[in-house]
């Protein structure tokens, strides 16, 4: 994942370039209209446990990845990558990486056990995974398509060394000018770069250039606002779900990035602006906790809660201390409040994720 280093700016607020088209499109508001749960079945009379229940087995079953060969910055016991051109807000230590691998599990389930939804129509020959993180998607893709060459790029070398022979990892900053020759890849995959890209339109244009005519791009992004249909949460602007999202919108604005990429049809608009056609964008409601009456959604919710439980401190630590100027104890109390609210599955919390795919025209040069 990649995000160029920005100076700390506690006073002014930067306007993310990523949400400004060449015509100067305005930045969307922080919050879309509040959704209503229409995708996650549940029994209103169920007395769901407010704790993780047996979801701890999900956390304990994940495998820690290999240690990095680089030295990392240490912030209150958590390690962060400091690349020569980029500083990423998320930790790169085992705990955060375990969370990323858990997220990969429920994202794949959400896509009906598919690694991508783009209708490629043939076996890809060369695939690029931008911001590969732990490399788990690239490894699974290489296993699924052994005749394809799969390349994963990231600023942090946290990927395992034992990988399929058709899978390689490069340390690269996706926000710099790409060095790949035009028309190199059949498929470009991007996932969870929210809050780390200064110019998403540039990113899409570079992907467009790197794709062969008729090639596909797919981008999956999280939305950081947690929701509940309970009026006491939905209508309360001071609830932790609202305060959590708002402070991170503020922090990423100050960094010159965007945490809004999955909102308001932004990916669809920017892909069209970059020249892609056949754009399909879909949002999914993802439960947090095993409160759904549907077996699949119940399991997705359990994995999601495990992901959040592993990741909350990592989400908050850099941005709130280094960007927003909070004290460490303030961050810990904030994380504790959010964790308690997420574990209260009686409120049936959920959030939205957005998947968008599109094609480079077959007649493109």
From TrEMBL:
The record, for SUPFAM superfamilies, names: S-adenosyl-L-methionine-dependent methyltransferases
- What organism is this sequence from? Tolypocladium capitatum
- Family (UniProt): Belongs to the methyltransferase superfamily. LaeA methyltransferase family.
Q: Where is this region: Disordered?
A: 1-46
What name goes with this protein? Methyltransferase
Q: What GO terms are given for molecular function? A: methyltransferase activity
Spell out the PANTHER family in the cross-references. ABC TRANSMEMBRANE TYPE-1 DOMAIN-CONTAINING PROTEIN-RELATED, METHYLTRANSFERASE
Leader peptide range in chain numbering: none
What is an example of a Pfam family matching this protein? Answer: Methyltransf_23
Q: Which domain of life is it from?
A: Eukaryota
Report the Gene3D superfamilies cross-referenced here.
Vaccinia Virus protein VP39
